[in-house]
Amino acid sequence: MHLDEFDRRLLNALQQDNQQTGEQLADQVGLSAAACLRRAQKLRENGAIEREVAILSPEVVGRRLTVIVLVTLERHETLGNESFRKRMLADEAVTQCYSVTGSADYVVILSVVDMEAYEDFTQLYFYDRSIKRFESLASLTKVKFTTAVPL
């Protein structure tokens, strides 16, 4: 799909606040309100906009601790990878999980209530024969967090 400059401006505006009116979008994009709304609908239909969600404050909803975990599997067999992926997909504490290159096989981002909840998570998932090792990085301060994709 080709994105022109108007599409890019519209996507940037929607990434900042997808609740804006057509008129508000028109002011930022340089098109009419109706054209902005038509383009936004087309971008949804074509998959440029995957989904539209509310981003919650983890602290307000009681998830005060973010932990980044580097996970190395014992072996790189397909079955072990698939099992690990299914377990990460199934647990609500896992907010992101990436298969990566380098010394670790996966990077897992967790949102948990506290360190005790994280310890429970590790006991459930990381003390397993399929896990060679894991390294935990507890977030002290959120310096930057965005879901916006640079355009």
SSE topology:
Blueprint: H1 5-16, H2 22-29, H3 33-45, E1 65-73, H4 78-90, E2 94-99, E3 106-112, H5 115-125, E4 131-138
Antiparallel strand pairs: 1-3, 1-4, 2-3
Helix pairs in contact: 2-3
General description of the model:
It is a single chain. This protein is an alpha+beta fold. The protein contains five helices and four strands, in the order H-H-H-E-H-E-E-H-E. It has helices spanning 5-16, 22-29, 33-45, 78-90, 115-125, and strands at residues 65-73, 94-99, 106-112, 131-138. A four-stranded antiparallel beta sheet has the order 2-3-1-4. Strand 2 and strand 3 (106-112) form a beta hairpin. Helix 2 (22-29) packs across helix 3. The chain starts with a helix and ends in a 13-residue tail after the last strand.
Number of helices: 5
Q: What does the main sheet amount to?
A: 4 strands, antiparallel
User: What overall geometry do the principal axes of the alpha carbons give?
Assistant: elongated
* The CATH topology of the largest domain: Alpha-Beta Plaits
The number of distinct structural domains comes to 2
Proportion of helical residues: 25-40%
The helix/strand series, from N terminus to C terminus, equals HHHEHEEHE
* Radius of gyration of CA atoms, rounded to a whole number: 20 Å
Please give the CATH class of the largest domain: Alpha Beta
Structural class determined from secondary elements: alpha+beta
Give the uncertain stretches in residue-range form: none
* Spatial order of strands in the largest sheet: 2-3-1-4
| CATH architecture title of the largest domain | 2-Layer Sandwich
Strand content range: 15-25%
What does the average pLDDT come to? Answer: 95
> What is the CATH homology-level superfamily of the largest domain?
Lrp/AsnC effector binding domain/regulation of amino acid metabolism (RAM) domain
Measured distance between first and last alpha carbons:
14 Å
Give a count of the beta strands, DSSP E runs of length 2 or more.
4
